[in-house]
Amino acid sequence: LIAVIKAPKTIILPFTYVQGSYKTFYELHGHRQKVTFVRFLPSSKQLMTAGEDGNLVLWDMATKRAEVTIC
């Protein structure tokens, strides 16, 4: 799986190259400031992100929703 930071506060995943452009399947919004860290957990069922807002967010990849936000 691939996750990338798009714009300051948005994470996209996964993306694929189709006919000369990238197609975004999901956008995750949950940080108030710039996202600085994105990492899948070993099971690939969750994604951990961190941002300059001081928050850590644990995302559920099945629902594409934040499970836990640690401030």
Can you walk me through this structure?
With 71 residues, the protein is mainly β. 0% of the residues lie in helices and 62% in strands. It has no helices and 7 strands. The protein has strands at residues 4-6, 10-18, 21-29, 35-40, 46-51, 56-60, 65-70. The strands form 2 sheets. It has a 4-stranded antiparallel sheet with strand order 4-5-6-7, with no helix packed on it. Strands 1-2-3 form a 3-stranded antiparallel sheet, with no helix packed on it. A hairpin with a 3-residue loop joins strand 1 and strand 2. The protein is globular. The N and C termini lie far apart (26 Å).
Topology:
Layout: E1 4-6, E2 10-18, E3 21-29, E4 35-40, E5 46-51, E6 56-60, E7 65-70
Antiparallel strand pairs: 1-2, 2-3, 4-5, 5-6, 6-7
Key features of this structure:
7 strands; 71 residues; globular; mainly beta; 4-stranded antiparallel β-sheet; single chain; 3-stranded antiparallel β-sheet
Radius of gyration over alpha carbons?
A: 12 Å
Terminal CA distance: 26 Å
Helical proportion? under 10%
Strand sequence of the main sheet, in spatial order? 4-5-6-7
In DSSP terms (H or I, runs of 4 or more residues), the helix count works out at 0
**Residues in β-strands, percent:** over 45%
pLDDT average, as an integer? 86
Number of E-type strands: 7
Q: What gross morphology would you assign? A: globular
* Helix and strand pattern: EEEEEEE
Q: Unreliable runs, pLDDT <50, ≥5 residues?
A: none
Secondary structure category? mainly beta
